[in-house]
Amino acid sequence: MLNLAITASNYSACPFNTVALTAFGSNSYTWTGSSLANPVIQQSVGVTPGTYTVSSAATNSVCVANTAISSAPPLVITTSLSPGQGTTCIAQNFPYPLSKPVNLYAFGASSYFWVPYNPGFPVIGPSITVRPATSTCYTVTGFTALCSGSAQICIGVQPQFTFDVAQSMQRYPWEGYEPASFFCRFFNCALNVYNVSPFATGPLSAFIYNWNFAPTMSVSSPGTPTVMFVPLSAFSYTAEIIDAQGCISTPYSATPIMAATCHFGNVSLNSERDKDAFFEIYPNPAKGQLFIRTQSGTQNFSVMLSDVLGKSVQIKKPQRNFANDNYFIDLADLKQGIYFLSIFSEGKILYRSKIVKE
After folding, report:
1. Of 64, 24, 71, 58, whose CA–CA distance to 44 is shortest?
2. Domain annotation covers residue 130
3. Domain boundary among 71, 102, 126
4. Cα(137)–Cα(144) distance, integer angstroms
5. What is the domain count for the chain?
6. In degrees, to the nearest 5, what angle opens at C-alpha 83 toward C-alphas 81 and 89?
């Protein structure tokens, strides 16, 4: 007499999940039941919830055993995130874009797996930290001893805000900065942020400005929207703004044009020009003395020399050389370098130029 028995890996299963049924007590087994379209002849079967029968024939007699697998409720995975608004922004441009961190949480299971994979952060567990560069949806799959389930949570990444940078240059130390399509070596130059797009969150006083120059150069007020500097050679730069929410702009990069030579002619300080004043300055470069010849008959004039930072280093009346019908000033006390020369009389600039002291 056969004595059939059935064991199950679980007597409850979630929808679409299977359990293993195994029969004992004979050497041949035939299974029928709810999820089996046709009889299955083997010792073990995988089945979904339902009622199942196993039979075996031996010595002209038939033995039957029955079992039932109940249906467990589906596993429900719930999610949350922090910050709770579901959006973030880019907080880093280099070496690759990363958003501000967002923490994702899952509930309802005993173990979890997250996709897509987020480099540098764990992907197994009830919570992960993500920093997507673009809007991304994450799927978490949860598992219990009986069931599995999944849920999706999406993070929106705000567009980066933009801005523009204007170039300006101080052609002569006694003037203000003027818009410039190119820069000159040893001249006072400036870069100024403007036209910041509305995506940036204020107030403006909370903005942080990052300026990076290659090659590195000394600049004034590097954390402000306007930086001033004296370029010694060709250079490139990258600027970024971090707004009041910690969101960073799209980087602005440029390589300004550097003029091979710079000469701007004779323009008066008060935008007036003395058309009758004509001066010849020689030699240039000069070592000891610098000579000035005038063809306008101007005699009562003074000379001012300023360094590249705009600081006046010498103001004097030139001495007259009647034999050669010219004037001269002594440069012996000046260090080697570039200087700006201006000739003025009665409060008006008559001539200006750049000279080199060897």
Report:
1. 24
2. yes
3. 71
4. 23
5. 4
6. 110
